[in-house]
Amino acid sequence: MSLQVSELRVYYRTLKGDVRALDGMTFELRDGEILGLVGESGCGKSTLGKSLIRMDGRMRRVGGTVTLDGHELPIDDDRRMNDYRFREVSLIPQYAMSALNPTRKIRRMVTELLRSRGTALDTAELERRMDQVGLPREVLDRYPIELSGGMKQRMVMVISTLLDPSLLIADEVTSALDVSTQKAVARALLGFRDSGYVKSMIFVTHDLALTHHIADTIMVMYAGKLAEKAPADVIVKAPRHPYTRLLLESLPEVGVRYTERRLEGIAGSPPSLLDPPAGCRFRDRCPIAGEECAQEPPVAELAPDHHVACWKA
Ligand SMILES: Nc1ncnc2c1ncn2[C@@H]1O[C@H](COP(=O)(O)OP(=O)(O)OP(=O)(O)O)[C@@H](O)[C@H]1O
User: Fold this and answer.
1) The ABC transporter domain covers which part of the protein (predicted)?
2) Confidence band (pLDDT; 50, 70, 90) for 98?
């Protein structure tokens, strides 16, 4: 088992009070597993990713534990987490491709990064990995501005995995890319896993179709909590949580025009995480909510590896 997250609660301190961005998340990730993490904007996906590697100043762990390869991660101790970053856990953050230092050529940037980690650059290994993701070697002697968006993204991916971290968190790495570049990036991620550069991966995205292609398991979050987690095929073909069903129904179909099938979103909006309601947080938008939903639903394992937090599932 690579990763075990247990009852994790991470809140943001704000002037209006605590934003309960993660409110009791429990899940596991096996060796070799790619987990697709989906859910509406603001449900806590990025907060989960950041919590596993670097909390920002406003984040606070209120409870729970994170264990990676049998060691509990000191997630709220920024200094101690330094021993784990890049080596054990690596993050490709949202908008990573715009975060490359514009004043450094790529080779110098990688050399400096590795030096700061006490490691020398193994150029042959770096080039092998660049070949694998289809990046020409002359990229090393270019400035970030001289690379296309897709090239920058693949370069960031190579850099983030150079020290073979156990867990890679890829946060929205494909959202700003065109469809064929998205595929190249997704293939590269699969290649990293298959080559053993990373043991397991959390792929954070809004794109359910792409997630279904590359993830072994999909976890759906809603308002800071786990709604459903199951093998990717099960989530797409036989979801049990009403939120997952509505999420799938709101996807556009290629070849179907608006006049034939109106694209329905999910009516209503998620609750504020400053003062979330008791009971099921999806209750106000749920077409099948009943009285029992005033109580918080437990996460039940309905079938092996199929976890659902819904009284009606
Ligand atoms: N620095 C912050 N201070 C206060 N609240 C924050 C902060 N960052 C995020 N939040 C809140 O925490 C909740 C979860 O945000 P998060 O960014 O993790 O969601 P997300 O699912 O990753 O969204 P998106 O898909 O838009 O990236 C939201 O309610 C958001 O408003």
Assistant:
1) 3-248
2) confident
Q: Is the per-residue pLDDT at 262 higher than 70?
A: no
Report how far residue 187's alpha carbon sits from residue 157's, in angstroms, rounded to the nearest whole number: 12
Cα separation, 283 vs 48, whole angstroms: 23
Q: Quote ipTM for the complex.
A: 0.97
- CA neighbours within 13 Å on the CB side: how many for 177? 26
Pocket test of ligand 1: the residue of 13, 18, 19 to mutate, having most ligand atoms within 8 Å of its CB, is 19
> Of all protein residues, whose CA lies closest to atom 30 belonging to ligand 1?
42
Give the residues surrounding ligand 1 with Cβ less than 6 Å away.
Answer: 12, 14, 19, 21, 39, 41-47, 58, 273
Fold classified for 3-252+265-280 = Rossmann fold (3.40.50)
Q: How far is the CA of 21 from the centre of ligand 1 (A)?
A: 7
Structure tokens belonging to residue 277: 């309601």
Report how far residue 268's alpha carbon sits from residue 284's, in angstroms, rounded to the nearest whole number: 8
Task: With a cut of 60, say whether residue 263 has pLDDT above it.
Answer: no
Structure tokens at 205: 């995205």
37: left (phi over 0), alpha (psi -120 to 50) or beta: beta
Instruction: Please count the residues of the chain.
Output: 313
Ligand 1 pocket: which of 8, 11, 12, 14 to mutate (most atoms within 8 A of CB)? 12
pLDDT band at 261 (very low <50, low <70, confident <90, very high): low
Beta bridge mates, 310:
none
The domain limits of the chain are 3-252+265-280
